[in-house]
Design goal:
- The complex is a heterodimer of chains A (about 425) and B (about 425).
- Chain A has about 425 residues and is of the alpha/beta class.
- Chain A contains 15 helices and 5 strands.
- Chain A has 2 domains: about 130 residues, 3-Layer(aba) Sandwich (Trna Endonuclease, Chain: A, domain 1), CATH 3.40.1350.10; about 220 residues, no CATH class.
- Helix content of chain A is about 50%, strand content about 10%.
- The C terminus of chain A is likely disordered.
- Chain B has a domain of about 130 residues: Up-down Bundle (Four Helix Bundle (Hemerythrin (Met), subunit A)).
- The N and C termini of chain B lie far apart (about 70 Å).
- Chain B has a 3-stranded antiparallel sheet. Chain B has a 3-stranded antiparallel sheet with strand order 4-6-5.
- In chain B, helix 2 crosses helix 4.
- With about 425 residues, chain B is of the alpha+beta class.
- Chain B has 20 helices and 14 strands.
- About 0% of the residues of chain B have low confidence.
- Chain B is about 55% helix and about 15% strand.
- Classes of the chains: A alpha/beta (about 425), B alpha+beta (about 425).
- At the A-B interface, helix 12, helix 14 and helix 15 of A face strand 1, helix 3, strand 3, helix 8 and helix 19 of B.
C-alpha cells in the first residue's frame, strides 16, 4: 500500500531496499536491515528528498520505539520524512503519534491508512494505481532467468541505493552496464525492460547532477565551463578528479598508448544531454518514473507510455528519448536495442502531437459554430438590403482566430538570373 | 596561394551560408544550391534548439513565414540534411514527414557538423566557393574590388558574384577615391561610405589589422592608441594609427566618450557593430548599453585618476552577480553614461564616493553579459530570433499567433504612385485646382 501511495504522489518508489554499511569489513556485505519502501520526491531546490516508508507488525515493541528505529534509518539516509504503518491489535496512543511527528515520522495504524491515503490523494486514494509490487518484483527477478545479468541487477536494486550520493550512480551504472553489454539481446523483451529500468535509476543520478549544475552556473555559456564543472562533479571534486585522471594516465602510458582526458563514455553526447536538460531542469526529476512506467509497459506488453498523452508531456518524452539514446551508446548495448525503443519514443511523441492537434481542431470547430451562426444572421439582415451576401458566402468566412496557412507567396520570390546581370563598373 | 586564415573551414561554410541566406530572404539564386540548403539548415537548426517535438506543418509554416524560406518545397530537403547530421529525428509515414524532434547541439558544434554533412552530400560550385570565400574575407574588413580580381578567379565570375551579392543585399560595391570598394552590410551595417573611404585611403590590409585589434580590445581609448602607438599590447604603425583616428572621426558614428576632470574627454574605440545575423535590431539598445559599460571600465582600467581596475571582466562579473560595484571616487564621472542609459544608478555614499547599482532588468543583465563578452575579446555568436524559439517551445498555437502577427505587419498600405504624389504637391502649391 505504501508503494502505491508514494507512486500516486508522483514519487519514485523502490521496494525492499536492503541496508548495509558501505564501510563494512566483511568480505560479503552484511545486511543490517531493510526498508519496505524508499521513495524519492523532487525537492523545491532541484534535488531529491528521501522518504522512508515501512509496514511493521509490533511484537513486544511500542510504536514510539519503532518510530525511533525509522528515525535512525532516516538519519543514515538523510531522509526528510518517514511513514510508518503499524499492524497493531490495540489502538495507538496519541502521545506516541505526537512524539513521532516531532521528528518527521508519521505514525499510522493499519486501519487508519485507508482514510489517510484518501485524504492525501483526494478523493479516491491510491489503491487503483496501476503499478504493483509484483510487477517490480518481476523486473528484479529477470536475473533468475538470465543470471549473466546479475551484476547489473544487483547494482540497480541493492548497491545503488546505498551510495553516499546519487551522482555516483551516473558513473558506476555505466560501468556496470558495460560489464554485461555482451549479454543483452534486443529481441528479448525482458532485456529491453531492464535497460529501461536501468535508465530510471541512471536518471536519479542525472537529475541530481543537472540540479547542481543549474544552481552553480544556471546554463553554462561555454563548452569549456560545462565540461570542467561536470567532470569535477562526477568524480567528487577537482582533487579527486585529478588523482583518478593521473592514475589512469599512468596506467595507459604503461601500455605506451596516448591517453585521452578522463571522462564518461560518449562524453560530448553526455554534455549535450545535460545541456538540453538545463533548459528545464525540474523535468529531469520526472524521468525515473517515466522510465519505470516504460519498463513495465514493455515487460507486460502494454501500450508504450500509454498514460503520457498531453502535449505538456512532449518535452519530458524528448528528454526520455535523449537519456535512453545516451545510455545505450555509453553502455555499448547492441544498436538494435537503442533503435527499437528510440523508435517507440519517436512514435509516442508524434502521436501525442497528433492527438493534441486533433483536440485543438475540435475545440476550434466547436467555437466556430457561434461565429457561423452570427454570419448567418448578418446574412439574413443583409438579404433585406440590395448588396446582401449570398448564402454560399458564409462558407467563405474564415474566423479571425483560425489562421489557415496558405501556400507561400511564390510571387514574392525574385530569381536573380543571368539576364539580370548588368555590365560591371 | 591563399594565406591559411583565408581558407574556408567547414564552420565557415555554415556561418557564411547562414549569413547569405538571411540577407537573401526570399530571393532565389539559381547558382546557390549548396549555399541555400546549408544556410537554411543552419538557420532552422538555430531556432530549434531546446525545442520539443513539433509537427511538420508547423515547422514548414515557421520556415516559410518567419524564417523567409523561399518556398515550402525546400523544407523537406533541409530537414533531411538536419536528420543526416543527427540534429533532428523524423517520424515519417512513407515519404511524408509527420513530426520533427530536434536535438540541436548547444555550443559551436552545430556549424562544424552541418558544414561537414553538407560537404559530404553536395558539391560546392565555383560561384558558391568564391562567394563564401569573399564573405569570409569581408567579415574581417571591406576590401578593394581589384584584390578580388587578383585571387585568380575569372573576371566574369567575380563580376557575376558581386552582382548577385549586390542584388541579394549582402554585398555593396562602392566607389571611393576613384576605387571600387566591396563591403558586406552583414558585417558592416553602418558607415558604409566612411569605411569605403577608409579602405580606399589606407588599404584594406591596414584597416583589417586595426579592426581585428579593436575586436580583441574593445573599447580601447584613442588617446592610448595615439600615445602608446599600440592597441592592447600590440604595436601599430603610423598608417594604422591614422586608421584608428579616422574611425573616431567624421563619417563614423561617434564612439562613446567619457569626460573626467583628470583626463578630459576621451573616446573609446570599438570594432564594427554586429550585423543583423549576430545582433537582431531589437537588441541594438542593449548593445549600446554594453558599449557604455565597456567604455566605463576601460576608463577605470587605462585612464584612472588614482587606482586602475585590474580585471575589467572580474569587475563586470561582480556587477552582474552582486548587483553593484563598490564605491570609489571616480564612479560619478566614470559611470555617468551608464546611468544615463538606465543600466545602473549611481548612489552617493559619502563625499565624492559613488556606488554603481545595477537596475535589475533582463535587458540590463543582458547588456552586462554582452559587455563581458566584448571585454574578453569574444565575437558575438550568430543569433536566432528569441520570439520564434519561445513560440516553438510553448506550442503550435503560439507559433500560429506569431505567424498571424507577421502577416498583419506585412500588409503594408500600397505606396502612393509618383504621378499622384506630384498632382497632390502641385495642388497644394497652387492652392487651387
Amino acid at each position: 500500500m505504501l508503494f502505491k501511495h508514494f507512486y500516486s504522489l508522483g514519487w519514485f518508489a523502490q521496494p525492499e531496499v536492503v541496508v548495509f554499511h558501505k564501510g563494512g569489513v566483511n568480505e560479503q556485505k552484511k545486511v543490517i536491515t531493510d526498508i519496505d519502501v524508499l521513495a524519492l520526491r523532487p525537492g523545491t531546490d532541484l534535488s531529491w528528498e528521501l522518504v522512508l516508508g515501512d509496514c511493521k507488525t509490533l511484537k513486544g515493541q511500542s510504536p514510539a520505539n519503532r518510530a525511533l528505529w525509522l528515525r535512525g534509518l532516516m538519519n543514515f539516509f538523510n531522509a526528510s520524512e518517514g511513514l510508518l504503518v503499524l499492524k497493531k491489535e490495540q489502538p495507538m496512543e496519541a502521545d506516541h503519534k505526537l512524539f513521532a511527528s516531532s521528528f518527521n515520522v508519521t505514525l499510522l495504524d493499519e486501519n487508519e491508512f485507508d482514510e489517510y491515503d484518501k485524504a492525501v490523494i483526494y478523493p479516491n486514494g491510491s489503491s487503483n494505481y496501476p503499478l504493483t509490487l509484483n510487477q517490480i518484483q518481476r523486473l528484479i527477478n529477470i536475473q533468475v532467468r538470465y543470471p549473466k545479468l546479475k551484476p547489473l541487477v544487483e547494482y540497480l536494486y541493492i548497491l545503488s541505493w546505498n551510495e553516499n550520493n546519487f551522482i555516483d550512480i551516473v558513473r558506476k551504472l555505466i560501468g556496470e552496464a558495460q560489464q554485461i553489454y555482451q549479454e543483452i539481446d534486443p529481441s528479448i523483451k525482458e532485456h529491453l525492460a531492464l535497460i529501461l529500468d536501468t535508465c530510471a535509476i541512471f536518471s536519479i543520478g542525472l537529475a541530481e547532477c543537472v540540479g547542481i549544475i543549474f544552481k552553480q552556473y544556471f546554463k553554462p555559456s561555454t563548452h569549456g565551463q560545462l565540461d570542467e564543472s561536470l567532470k569535477y562533479l562526477l568524480w567528487g571534486g577537482r582533487s579527486q578528479y585529478d588523482f583518478v585522471a593521473r592514475l589512469r594516465n599512468e596506467l595507459i602510458a604503461a601500455k605506451r598508448t596516448p591517453a585521452t582526458p578522463l571522462a564518461l563514455p560518449e562524453w560530448e553526447r553526455f554534455m549535450q544531454l545535460v545541456r538540453s536538460l538545463l533548459e528545464y531542469p525540474a523535468l529531469a526529476f520526472s524521468l525515473p518514473i517515466l522510465f519505470r512506467n516504460a519498463a513495465i509497459n514493455v515487460l507486460f506488453d502494454q501500450p508504450f507510455l500509454g498514460t503520457y498523452n498531453s502535449d505538456k508531456d512532449l518535452l519530458l518524452l524528448k528528454f526520455g528519448m535523449l537519456v535512453y539514446n545516451y545510455f545505450c551508446r555509453a553502455a555499448k548495448f547492441p544498436p538494435q536495442a537503442r533503435e527499437i525503443l528510440e523508435g517507440e519514443f519517436v512514435r509516442k511523441q508524434s502521436s501525442v502531437l497528433s492527438m493534441s492537434r486533433n483536440a485543438s481542431d475540435k475545440e476550434e470547430g466547436s467555437q466556430q459554430s457561434p461565429v457561423i451562426t452570427n454570419t448567418t444572421s448578418i446574412t439574413e439582415e443583409d438579404s433585406q438590403r440590395s448588396d446582401h451576401k449570398t448564402p454560399s458566402s458564409e462558407h467563405d468566412h474564415t474566423p479571425k482566430n483560425n489562421i489557415q496557412p496558405e501556400l507561400p507567396l511564390e510571387k514574392n520570390t525574385k530569381p536573380v538570373s543571368d539576364q539580370d546581370t548588368e555590365k560591371p563598373l | 596561394m591563399a594565406a591559411p586564415d583565408d581558407q574556408l573551414t567547414t564552420t565557415d561554410l555554415a556561418i557564411r551560408a547562414h549569413d547569405i541566406t538571411v540577407c537573401l530572404e526570399r530571393t532565389t539564386v539559381p547558382e546557390f544550391d549548396f549555399i541555400s540548403l546549408l544556410g537554411m539548415a543552419t538557420r532552422l537548426a538555430l531556432h530549434l534548439r531546446g525545442v520539443q517535438a513539433v509537427s511538420y506543418p508547423t515547422i514548414r509554416d515557421v520556415a516559410v513565414y518567419l524564417l523567409d524560406f523561399p518556398s515550402s518545397t525546400v523544407v523537406k530537403p533541409v530537414l533531411e540534411l538536419l536528420a543526416e547530421a543527427e540534429f533532428v529525428k523524423l517520424d515519417t509515414e512513407g515519404l511524408t514527414i509527420r513530426t520533427v524532434i530536434p536535438d540541436i547541439p548547444f555550443y559551436e558544434d552545430v556549424f562544424t557538423s552541418l558544414g561537414n554533412v553538407a560537404i559530404s552530400q553536395s558539391k560546392i560550385s565555383e560561384p558558391e566557393f568564391l562567394t563564401l570565400t569573399l564573405m569570409k574575407k569581408l567579415s574581417a574588413s571591406p576590401m578593394l574590388v581589384d584584390h578580388v580580381y587578383q585571387t585568380g578567379a575569372e573576371k566574369k565570375l567575380v563580376d557575376r558574384v558581386i552582382d548577385i551579392g549586390s542584388k541579394g543585399n549582402y554585398l555593396i560595391n562602392r566607389r571611393a577615391r576613384g576605387r571600387s570598394v566591396l563591403l558586406s552590410p552583414t558585417y558592416f551595417p553602418e558607415n558604409v561610405g566612411a569605411y569605403s573611404d577608409l579602405v580606399a585611403a589606407n588599404g584594406a590590409h591596414k584597416v583589417k589589422r586595426v579592426l581585428e585589434l579593436l575586436k580583441e580590445n574593445q573599447g580601447w581609448p584613442l588617446i592610448k592608441i595615439e600615445t602608446e602607438r599600440a592597441i592592447g599590447q600590440i604595436s601599430i604603425d603610423d598608417t594604422e594609427i591614422q586608421v584608428a583616428k579616422m574611425l573616431a572621426g567624421e563619417g563614423f558614428l561617434p564612439p562613446p566618450a567619457i569626460e573626467t576632470t583628470h583626463a578630459g574627454v576621451n573616446s573609446f574605440l570599438f570594432g564594427p557593430r554586429p550585423g543583423k545575423t549576430q545582433l537582431p535590431p531589437e537588441k541594438r539598445p542593449v548593445y549600446e548599453a554594453a558599449m557604455a559599460l565597456v567604455a566605463s571600465v576601460r576608463q577605470g582600467q587605462l585612464l584612472p585618476a588614482k587606482y586602475a581596475i585590474r580585471s575589467p571582466i572580474a569587475l563586470l562579473s561582480a556587477f552582474r552577480d552582486r548587483g553593484y560595484i563598490r564605491a570609489n571616487t571616480e564612479a560619478l564621472e566614470q559611470y555617468r553614461q551608464v546611468a544615463a542609459l538606465r543600466v545602473g544608478r549611481i548612489i552617493q555614499v559619502e563625499n565624492n564616493w559613488g556606488e554603481l547599482h545595477l537596475i535589475d532588468l533582463p535587458e540590463n543583465r543582458e547588456a552586462v553579459d554582452m559587455a563581458i563578452t566584448m571585454v574578453s575579446g569574444s565575437e558575438p555568436q550568430v543569433s536566432a530570433r528569441e520570439d520564434i524559439i519561445l513560440s516553438l517551445r510553448q506550442g503550435e498555437k503560439y507559433v500560429e499567433s506569431l505567424i498571424g502577427r507577421k502577416r498583419i505587419l506585412e500588409n503594408k498600405p500600397v505606396e502612393i504612385d509618383e504621378e499622384t504624389q506630384e498632382a497632390i504637391d502641385t495642388f497644394l502649391l497652387r492652392g487651387r485646382e
